[in-house]
Each structure stands twice: as structure tokens, then as C-alpha cells.
Amino acid sequence: MPFSEPTLPERVLAEPDMNAIVGSHDLLLITLDTLRHDVAAELAAAGRIPNLTARMPGGVWEERHAPGSFTYASHQAMFAGFLPTPARPGPHRRLFAARFAGSETTAEGTYVYDTPDLVTGLAAAGYHTVCIGGVGFFTKRSPMGSVLPGYFQESHWEPEFGVPSPTSFEAQIACAERVIGGLAPDRRLFLFVNVSALHQPNWFHLPGATRDSGDSRASHAAALEYVDRHIGRLFTAMGGRGPGFAIVCSDHGTAYGDDGYTGHRLGHESVWTVPYTHFFLGTR
What we know:
The chain has helices spanning 37-45, 50-53, 71-79, 118-124, 143-147, 168-181, 217-239, 269-272, and strands at 26-32, 62-65, 85-86, 96-98, 111-113, 128-132, 154-156, 189-195, 244-249, 255-258, 261-263, 273-281. By secondary structure, it is of the alpha/beta class. The chain has an eight-stranded mixed sheet with strand order 3-2-12-9-1-8-6-7, sandwiched between helices. A two-stranded parallel ribbon has the order 4-5. Strands 10-11 form a two-stranded antiparallel ribbon. β6, α5 and β7 (154-156) form a beta-alpha-beta unit. The longest helix is centred in the C-terminal third of the chain and has 23 residues, at 217-239. The termini are far apart.
């Protein structure tokens, strides 16, 4: 079926001055792996993800373009400061950027670091950096699966966090709560969580679906509802430490038969168009 975006309210987010945030706020980056923008927008408009929409400015996702078409490429870009780009003419100031001459997206309000990547840049600024992995590129079970978590001072992955687990996000949040509870209150935290629940297989999140019926756009939506039911715990745990700033986005979408395409790592609108939001946690 052809891909078509729903006619829903648009959101243009205010871009905060990250130089006033880095150092004074904890930072939380959540990637909802494979989440499509159209599904995310429809569920927000229908009131089906109330814990997320209660935090999002205006209760609406901002439409953006992914920096890569699959997990590894997109996260390499995001860890270099290239978050999903607003889906409208730019240039658009980035929140974070490595210092290099000629950057057209580094401007006043951009937090500039002198390391090759954001994670080590934040560590140099005094942050304790933690990765809670989800999909296969974060398992640390192979050299490639060790690259992305290797950026962080502390990283976690267990089979319960992975894509085959129907309770993956609950297990990830329990890990996050232990990490947050064990950190000194005066130490700033950069917590990254790669949420695997949206990724195939996700059929088990849809009531009545079976392994034989397989994954679908509907089971993808049901997986987002599952995440929303539990994500408030993570926001509460982070906000309880004091002021925080959260970024929640998809790394890329995925196709479910759109124009004959299935999956991702391909150049289709269902893959390139992603939801994004950012907001403050705790006391500013």
C-alpha cells in the first residue's frame, strides 16, 4: 500500500540553549528503534500514548528525517551530534556538535565539544555516561555489537532487553532504575536507552496475533502502546534526581509492505520519516 502521512497537527519545537543545560541538567536520550512517524502521530492524536503526549510540547511529535536508514548508521550519526533533522527547509541548528570549521548547523545555543563524539564529550564535561542496549547492535556479543556501547563508561545488555522478549522495556527500565539509584546525587548523568520493543518481532504485543500471522503496522502500534504504559517510570526516576533534559526519537522507521517494501535499510519514506520530541524533566 502507498505510504501516506496522516493529516495531523504539526509541531515545531523551541530549540533550547544547550550551553545552559549541559553541566546543570541530567541528559536522557531514548531511541524508539524502528518507530514510524505516521504510527506515532496517529497514536498521539488518538490519545493512545498518554504518558508520552503528557510530556511532549503540545502533545504532538515533531516530524523529522532520520540520519540513517538502520540502527548502526543512525546511532553512529546521533552519537556524533547529528540527531534527526526537522522535515522542513533549513539549515537547522543542532543541539550538540563536535568542533570543526565550516559547520553550517553549529550556532549560538549549540553545545560544542572537542572530542570525536558526543558521548565522550559529555564524559569530558563530567557526566557519567550509561548505555542500556536493546537491539542486536548493542549486545556486546560480537565486535560489531560492541562498537556502540563502547562509547560509554558503563553499558548494559541482557537477553531480556532484546527484540524477542515481550517484556523487554520493563527489564530495561528496571536496569535504568538500578543505575540511577546507585549514582551519587551530585554526579551528572547521561543515560541512553535503545528501546527494542518496536523492532520486529513485535506481533506478541497485539492481542490475538500469532507467530504465524506475523508482524504488522498494527502490532508495531501495539508495541508503542506497550512502551507508553511503562515509560513514566523512567521519566520519574530521571526527574527525581533534579533537573533533566530528555530527547525521545526514532532512529529510523520500517516498512510493512509500503509500496512493496518490507523492513528498513532502504530509502523509503516510511523509513526516513521519524518522530522526535524533547522536553525538561524534574525541576528546571
